[in-house]
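Quick one, T. Sequence first:
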Amino acid sequence: MSAEVTGKEAEYRQRISRLDIGDLRRMWEVLCSRDNLPGWPPGRALEYLVLRAFQLEGAEVTWPYEVRRNGVLLEQVDGAVYCDGLTCLIETKAHSEPIDFLAISRMKTRLLRRPRTVIGAVFGIGEFSRAAILLTENLPPPDVLLWRGRELAWALQRQAMREGLNRKMRHAIEEGFADFDLIEERFL
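Structure tokens:
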């Protein structure tokens, strides 16, 4: 992004850039137990954790940003990841209750404004509601990949964020569904 980053966002970027994978794993444990991390606004720590985990594996990331046109805020994007030929917008939900379809719907709307090669990924601490999964299955294309908390924990433990993204994408390409469970290697 060409816009200069100042204030709190610059502080968050600086703070997260000092963390290694062990630090991210500890940060994840705290987030799972509290839904928030001291010194971070609600939800913000998970955004930076996910992006930093990808960055530590060699992916290029764009930190959280806003899209404005003529001074009007159009979108707040939690970040983007570029790796292995994939371009992925990131959305995170740092609350323990099941994620509803609204987060997926917002991501699908964002993707409509992007080139067709862009995919989305929604990361949560907990699970997705059954309605969210069913609506995701029935609203093609399968361009929003779902990451439950236990899958994120699995990927952090193995430093397999890129591998997980690629496996989920391969499943979406081959099977036509975006609901692949990384741990059990089956549909959600």
